[in-house]
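#random but structural
TW: two for the price of one
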Amino acid sequence: MTQTLRLEPVRTLTHGNAVFSAAFSPNGKQIATASLDNTVRLWNLSDGEVLTTLKGHGDGVCFVDFHSDGRIVTASLDRTLRILSADGSQLLTTFIGHQDYLTCAAIARNGTLLVSGGFDKTVRVWDSQTELNVVVWTGHTENVQCVAISGDGKTVASGGDDQTIRLWNVESQSVSKVVMGHSKGVEGLAFSPDGTLLASASVDGSVRLWSRTGEPVATLEQIPVLVKSVVFSPDGRWLVSGDGIGTMRVWDTANLQLVLTAPAHKNSIHDLTFSRDGTHFASAGFDRTIHVWSVVEKQD
């Protein structure tokens, strides 16, 4: 028997403009969404009602996620990152440093590091505890479009329009490898939960897998449209990609077999995310919607 995955629709949430990011709260009871309408919305997952709308950014919001303690982290094209209280009522910290659009960010699951990238071609590491900009990494020759942090917080990956992925050693604060293989810009990155694999999504239409040290592992089915986003399930069993025409694809990471192709949005899927217990999944799209799904695994 083989194990397959099914995504059953739960509800659809809507913003006033394209949605670039979504994240489940640590307890799985809320979902936060970030939009080009300059807001972040915090929703009650059980009934789909808006709990609060977070305002304050001066441009589109490209990223939202939760610290393990519930604090909300947002990043915006206005070049700032913000940390807010768990209910969004209090602004705790604002990080300023990028010299052009801030386009992507990531939170370390262990520790206090935040990472961001942008059109200033830099990758910046911040400490959410001390509120300091720890280091500014340069090397990308075009816009940085995506960043990811390994589960142990020791490796940062960044990708951009220069078609490269750069792996950075957090301890030495330097680049450890420049990974080349994509023929167009890199739009999405994700580490597997155990840190052994890095997945990349590219405008060249491919999803590629790399070892943690940047060695090529596999190129998954070539897709005839650009790929915007990629994510692993919390148990590492599934890899999901989202493309430029709104289609999601799911691979079984044990055998790299494609197990599901699902039309989901009217156009680009900018973000994909699992709840931390793996029971729910969300996709965020340029069509202004967030689809929430229930994750069902079955034996065939």
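TW: number two ↓
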Amino acid sequence: MPLMLLDSASLYFRAFYGVPESVTAPDGMPVNAVRGFLDMVARLVDTRRPDRLLACLDEDWRPAFRVELVPSYKAHRVAPNGGEEIPDTLSPQVPVLMEVLDALGVARAGAPDCEADDVIGTAVAHETGDAVEVVTGDRDLFQLVRDEPPVRVLYTARGIGKLAVLGPAEVGAKYGVPGTSYADFAALRGDPSDGLPGVPGIGEKTAAALISRWHTLGALTAALDAGETGGFPAGARTKLLASRAYLDIALAVVALRTDAPLAPYDDVLPSRPADPGALTDLSDRYGLDSSLSRVLHALNAVHGT
């Protein structure tokens, strides 16, 4: 039973910025993120036909264990109140979206002190035989791709209508490293969007060359500590030694948890709304009729009803 995992925050942020705020509820409240998210789900279900669907949530968008290791982690996204910097007109839409998912019967899961990425990593780790598709705009999730059983990332950088389907071969072709080594590569390269510094002076090509040679950060640091000089691009060894302390902690920040404490959930794709009355009320209150019609049509098509 193929499973689709939604990186929910990635998708509702994309929906918010992709759909005009002029899309409002009858009372004038913007519902562009809600409508856009539902339209994405409708299209994903219609085109990919999963048997199971799970909306994965950030219980903690900036977990303390990552910040303790790298204080700059997502620091540029901290609002004055200490929370995540979110547009004022998006914040009220998120609980509405959660209510709609519950009324539809779409499972959602989060875990204390965990990002949605960790929820996804844990859900993937629990799968032993079924194909998994992860829908996200976050490159960190490329570390999950594998062939047996298959895990693919449906990357949304160009939109839901132009998804890039990435497995180990595609990640390897794009970055020059195996998908299983993507986290090691990303830790070396760094990621400004997450406030992850990387090793100064080590760019994408050099990071790929180093990981292609040593495969893991552990093997790379062992070579540094042993005094090896062969296999290092010009100047790279000096730069790596200058960031030796960072190399000991970087992978713990980038690597996704596979042991997030998830509460039980039923991810079977619903064939009908879990709470039709609540769904009707939400549709009327927020003007969601057309988007919900598309979702319900897609669900019916998968179930042949």
